[in-house]
Amino acid sequence: MSDSPEKISMAGRVRNNFLTGLIICAPLAITIWLTFTFIDWADSWVTPYIPQRYNPEYYFNIAIPGTGLVVAMIIITMIGFLGKNLIGRSIVNFGESILNRTPLVRTIYKSLKQIFETVLKDQSTSFKKVGLIEFPTPGTWALVFISADAQGEVAARFAEMGEEMVAVFLPPTPVPTAGFLLFVPKNKIIMLDMSPEDAAKLLISGGLISPDYIPKALPQGAPPVTVPLPE
Predict the structure, then answer these.
(1) What is the rounded distance in angstroms from the CA atom of residue 180 to the CA atom of residue 141?
(2) Cβ 215 vs Cβ 225: under 8 Å
(3) Where would you find the membrane-spanning parts of this chain (predicted)?
(4) Which pLDDT does position 231 carry in this prediction?
(5) Contact present, 142 and 126 (Cβ < 8 Å)
(6) Residues 69, 42 contacting (CB under 8 angstroms)
(7) Helix, strand, or coil here: 183?
(8) For residue 63, which of 76, 50, 78 has the smallest C-alpha distance?
(9) How confident is the prediction along the chain (231 residues), in pLDDT tens digits per residue?
């Protein structure tokens, strides 16, 4: 019986070491797996269309991961460069005019273009702010990403009622890739200082990973805020 605590202690140390190693290795392994999966996916789409004389794999006789991804990035960058000048812009406008005359395709194209322009625009503030709203019942709060002020008919309808509404995206936990689009009164949103990246970590971890928070400096002369410790 005397050596039982030692055995338990040894087992506890082994368990703690395993958990520590898991915390270190799991995120690294998943990150590497996702990265190479994305590279392989890009290669499978682009590499077959690369002319043989421009494909490094033809000369080295081995598969080079990332070739298709690099070529795709170069082509996209060149298209963006050409699209800024007069000739390139004319070609883009001609192509868009054809798509805009094609039933069904024009709806998909316009929707996707508007989404990408909104998300990738430098001056856009969409999804760059985080807040809290009461959901699903009063007194219960949910984390949301601020999308934009309500626009168009939605804004006009609420303006008739004297409400200034904001569109927010409410993602679920632990996979915040789908969710709900909600229109919330601006004065009902509690804005947070955390970044969208920190908010995503909080959501994915189910509240286990909470970002550090440094309270703002109190106004001069204001009494310090104290938090009672549990007994």
Answers:
(1) 15
(2) yes
(3) 18-39, 59-82
(4) 43
(5) no
(6) yes
(7) strand
(8) 50
(9) 444 445 567 777 888 888 888 878 887 888 888 888 888 888 888 888 888 777 777 777 777 788 888 888 888 888 888 777 777 778 878 888 888 888 888 888 888 877 777 666 655 556 788 999 999 888 899 999 998 888 888 888 888 888 888 999 998 887 766 788 899 998 899 999 888 888 888 888 888 888 777 776 655 555 544 434 434
On whether the CB atoms of residues 192 and 130 are closer than 8 A, the answer is yes
* 142-163: b (≥16 Cβ within 10 Å) or e: bbbbbbeebeeeebeeeeeeeb
Q: Two tokens at 206?
A: 């189910």
Would you put residue 47 in left (φ > 0), alpha (ψ -120 to 50) or beta? alpha
Give residue limits of the domains in the chain.
129-204
Contacts of 188 (CB under 8 A, 6+ apart): 133, 134
- Cβ 181 vs Cβ 199: under 8 Å: no
Can you tell me the distance from the alpha carbon of 120 to that of 125, in angstroms, rounded to the nearest whole number? 10
- Counting every residue written for the chain, the total comes to 231
Six-digit token string for 146:
């601020």
Instruction: State the pLDDT at residue 28.
Output: 81
Residue 123 tokens read as: 């001056």
Query: Residue 16, class by beta-carbon neighbours within 10 Å (0-12 exposed, 13-18 middle, 19+ buried)?
Result: exposed
